[in-house]
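Hi R.,

Quick one: here's the Homocysteine S-methyltransferase sequence you asked about.
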Amino acid sequence: MASESVHSEKGIVLDGGLSNALEDRGHDLSDALWSARLLKDAPEEIAAVHRAYFKAGAMVATTASYQASVAGFAQAGVGVAEAERLITSSVRIAREVRDEFGGDRLVAASVGPYGAILADGSEYRGRYGVSAAALRDFHGPRLELLIGAGPDLLAIETIPDVDEAEVLVQLLQELDFPAWLSYSAADGQTRAGQPLSAAFALATIDQVVAVGLNCCAPEEVAPAIALATKPAVVYPNSGETWDAGTRSWTGSSATLTNLAPAWAAAGAAYIGGCCRVGPDDIRVLASALSDV
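And here's the predicted structure, written out as tokens:
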């Protein structure tokens, strides 16, 4: 397994959303590859976002591999060898920026759910209608590519379904590599409707160093920490709400930063942000957690 530095009993500040930070820098991420497209078209912009988060106080860079897969790149006309190079480059980019800063900073290789490749919202529903063998065939080679590129751990994130998590946990045990396991959730359940207690119960293997939630409303976090079977990892969305009528966000990301100290006090080991959380928010979050 990788370094014991990935284990933590106190709040380590994660980064925020990669896609929104890239959009704030003027990039259109509306195609199916999402932020992974910039691994090919503008890798220096991904590096710039990692750099901004580290400067803001983040101690972990989450790579631009969430939606990166050989199959996904193939749909965009990218050959297998080049797709594999791009996937591993996500780790290299983050490592190079991490090395500029030194210290105890970590690189977490992002592993998004199978539903992300479908680009149809399936990642927020689960129950894809595919077999466990198909999920294994999808995730296994990608995990091997990412691990081979040398991250400190994997960020297995936005998993909507216990069925998919079971496959990923088995692969982690076989590959013997540390990871956090983070579900997307609503109303105390996975997006597929399973109890979080059952979802977290899968995290008994040594390779899972933390379990929790991401890409959820901030109010989902505290009850989840209480259920966590390992140190908790939590990085919800900003707390803003999408208004479909005006096609704009309302509310404030202050919700996240106000709640984060209580999450740390309750035992969250890794705390950051997901959608609509940017470097400025992480700067405030890091400051709020500095005295916890």
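The chain has a mean pLDDT of 92.

Cheers,
M.
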